[in-house]
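Input record, target 12 of the design panel.
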């Protein structure tokens, strides 16, 4: 064998080794420096409108406590939706003011226009009173405000526009009554056995006033404040109401207790929702209702039953009556009936963005003797604001 053949063989083996090594290393060198793990990857975006939560199902037998609510098994490969972050509640007061001001508010503007005249005649005073009546303030409160203004005008005159505005602001504020307690009882309490019991809020009112929307918006307010919430879809009259509520709940990670049975007993759903709230140790259970009843005794029976079954499980801390601000005197008649049968503790005045008749706030508080606690200012998810008398009156008067 020639002497340099060995050299060629050794060289060949070395080259082969290098080729194999390079082939093994190549994929490692081309991989991205850091592959995120499943936990590090952003969760996929859920569709905004048709997403639903894992809903608790219920049936009528549950009223007797024989059928506890059941939640569908959580599946490991279920996509985790991205939850909305509701707007902080404090920022909403400014929006209330801006919206009221933007609505053109004939009430404030017309009152100021008349009051700014040099010498107020009897006709001017009549015009002022008529303006208040047209804004749904109501006869008694309107007459009271005119009396107060007449006294002020006698004492101070009406020449200085700044003074006129201050005078009117103070008179309107008195009518709205800043001294009323407008807080919502949504903190859990302690039961006799020392266990935490959720606060239950029942939402009532005739159909179409905005109950379901209000429950959804209120859930967001409570989530923004750090509360654990459960929703009860006791509006079993309109099947879409429960779906609507599930959409609201899913956007902020709040479970919804509902029935999939047509025309199920609303009291059974309310009961299951409260029991589920207790089991899950949540802070608040919000219960939506139908309110689609032809007569007062039917309404009384249904709401009475809902109240009784809720109170078996937890204290009913709030009964919120939802009224549509655009319905004027009609809304007042509804308020009267619900006030008599439902033990209303607070009013939610919706659709204030659609009317310049803010005076309904005054009339409805007088009618029921309970405060307006929340106002709806639009169809957006965060268009629900705690009612604040000063901001409201400033909105009426404009800047
Ligand atoms: N502009 C405006 N629209 C509102 C407001 N609140 C509710 N709505 C609208 O009013 C309509 C009725 O609202 P719902 O929440 O379905 O009313 P509901 O009282 O639950 O109705 P039923 O389930 O039929 O009894 C919807 O189109 C809402 O978007 C509000 O503050 N402003």
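The sequence produced for target 12 reads:
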């Amino acid at each position: 064998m020639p002497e340099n053949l060995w050299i060629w063989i050794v060289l060949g083996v070395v080259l082969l080794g290098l080729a194999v090594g390079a082939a093994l290393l190549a994929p490692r060198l081309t991989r991205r420096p850091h592959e995120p793990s499943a936990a590090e990857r952003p969760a996929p975006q859920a569709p905004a409108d048709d997403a639903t939560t894992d809903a608790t199902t219920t049936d009528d037998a549950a009223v007797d406590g024989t059928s506890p609510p059941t939640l569908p098994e959580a599946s490991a490969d279920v996509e985790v939706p991205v939850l909305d972050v509701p707007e902080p509640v404090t920022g909403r007061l400014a929006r209330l003011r801006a919206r009221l001001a933007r609505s053109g508010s004939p009430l404030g503007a017309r009152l100021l226009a008349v009051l700014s005249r040099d010498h107020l005649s009897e006709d001017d005073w009549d015009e002022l009173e008529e303006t208040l009546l047209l804004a749904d303030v109501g006869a008694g409160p309107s007459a009271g405000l005119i009396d107060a203004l007449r006294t002020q005008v006698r004492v101070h005159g009406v020449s200085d526009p700044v003074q006129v505005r201050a005078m009117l602001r103070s008179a309107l504020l008195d009518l709205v009554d800043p001294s009323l307690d407008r807080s919502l009882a949504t903190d859990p309490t302690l039961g006799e056995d020392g266990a935490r019991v959720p606060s239950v809020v029942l939402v009532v009112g005739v159909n179409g006033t905005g109950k379901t929307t209000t429950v959804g918006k209120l859930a967001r307010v409570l989530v923004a404040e750090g509360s654990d919430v459960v929703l009860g879809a006791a509006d079993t009259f309109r099947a879409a109401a429960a779906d609507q509520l599930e959409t609201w709940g899913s956007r902020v990670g709040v479970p919804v207790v509902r029935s999939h049975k047509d025309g199920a007993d609303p009291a059974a759903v309310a009961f299951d929702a409260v029991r589920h709230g207790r089991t899950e140790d949540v802070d608040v259970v919000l219960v939506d209702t139908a309110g689609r009843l032809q007569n007062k005794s039917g309404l009384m029976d249904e709401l009475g039953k809902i109240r009784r079954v809720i109170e078996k499980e937890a204290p009913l801390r709030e009964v919120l009556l939802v009224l549509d601000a655009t319905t004027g005197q009609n809304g007042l008649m509804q308020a009267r009936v619900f006030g008599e049968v439902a033990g209303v503790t607070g009013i939610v005045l919706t659709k204030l963005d659609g009317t310049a008749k803010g005076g309904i706030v005054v009339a409805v508080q007088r009618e029921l003797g309970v405060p307006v606690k929340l106002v709806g200012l639009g169809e957006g998810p965060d268009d629900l604001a705690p009612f604040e008398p000063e901001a409201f009156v400033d909105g009426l008067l404009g800047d």
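Strands lie at 189-190, 196-197, 199-204, 229-234, 256-257, 284-289, 316-324, 346-350, 372-376, 384-386.
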